[in-house]
Amino acid sequence: MINRRNMIAMGGAAALFGALPQIAAAQDMGRFVDLGFIASDAIVPAGVVVWLPPGYDHSGQRYGVVYMHDGQNLFDPKRSNFNKVWAADKSALRLIAAKKTQPFIIVGIDQPGTDRYRQYFPKPMMNLVSPGVKQKIEEQSGGKAITADAYLKFIVTQLKPRIDREFRTKADRRHTTIAGSSMGGLISLYALTQYPDVFGNAATVSTHLPLADPNWSADERSDIDAAWRTYAKEYLGPPAGRRIWFDHGTETLDAFYQPYQENLDAALTANGWQQGRDFSSKVYAGAPHEENAWAARLDDIFGWLLQNY
User: Fold this and answer.
1) Is 129 helix (H, G, I), strand (E, B) or coil?
2) Can you list the alpha helix ranges (DSSP code H) found in 69-194?
3) What b/e sequence results for 163-176 when a residue is b if at least 16 CB atoms lie within 10 Å of its CB, and e otherwise?
């Protein structure tokens, strides 16, 4: 079995809960603000780190915000579960310097370790799949309750208001993006579904559309495809000004994704989403399911999603 697939089942490696040291960077590289662990009635305390773009301290202007899951794996290899990172700040610096996007803020939200799977799982899918598939999903979540709704509530009612209060943000949905990979892709898509007035854009990278271990039978896969078509029609609906980035590679865990993604792309198109305008769906040949691969295409992701920031 692919090692990365074990990560899906176990919620990633154990979260690294050591305090992130303040990173003092030159002003033209932006700077980090460590908010520490934010207590919540909805979820276990989540570590949050904010990256502010170059010029933030002197410009007086307001900035769009990208909220990203798996915060341990975004910036600092020492905090990463895999000694690899998206290098999200470096991507932002390149795009800003090239004037491909306006400067923007990144908010990294740590994942909770072994509870990652159930915190990032889109809850409606439990009721759209067959009982047999649902049982296997429940086994993968360790029989514990899905907590995605509580996690999104934390972001929308607690974290985002704090970010908008303490930093100079553009708080409207057009300038609010949510992004993640694998299970983080699922919860990003779910956020766009549940809070369409809050999030205007979502990056769903190497999205784990098989929902659990991808070694499904043909009938089970057909059942999951049907569930995604229903989800797209009944929960996601027409674009209504929202935009989604989808992608996947072709190696390791990503090798399973193409038929699921093609099914979802067709469902979005049937719902009025226009590819290239409302959503993008890219295949990166030879790319595996891991942070270095996501870092390599993050300029594409940010560049497309944030072009109107």
Assistant:
1) coil
2) 88-97, 116-120, 125-128, 131-140, 148-154, 160-166, 183-194
3) beeebebbeebebb
CA gap 30, 51 in Å, rounded: 7
DSSP state of 280: E
- Measured CA to CA, the distance from residue 198 to residue 134 in angstroms comes to 29
Rounded Cα distance, 204 and 265, in Å: 13
The 10s digit of each residue's pLDDT in 111-130 is 999 999 999 999 999 999 99
User: 3-state SS of 11-35?
Assistant: CCCCCCCCCCCCCCCCHHHCEEEEE
Cβ neighbours, 10 Å, residue 11: 23
For 137-159, letters b (16+ CB in 10 Å) and e give bbebbeeeebbbbbbbbbbbebb
What tokens were used for 107? 């908010």
Strand partners, 275: 279
Residue 132 tokens read as 């047999």
Residue 124 DSSP label: T
Instruction: Report the 10 Å Cβ neighbour count for 26.
Output: 8
CA 141-20-299 angle, to 5 degrees, is 75
Among 115, 102, 237, 111, smallest CA distance to 177 is for 102
Q: What phi and psi values does residue 10 have, to the nearest 5 degrees?
A: -95, 0
Strands 46-52 and 31-38, by their bridges, are antiparallel
The pLDDT tens digits of the residues spanning 165-221 come to 999 999 999 999 999 999 999 999 999 999 999 999 999 999 999 999 999 999 999
Q: How far is CA 189 from the centre of its chain?
A: 8
Residue 239, exposed/middle/buried by CB under 10 A (0-12, 13-18, 19+)?
middle
Please give the Cα distance from 98 to 94 (Å, whole number).
6
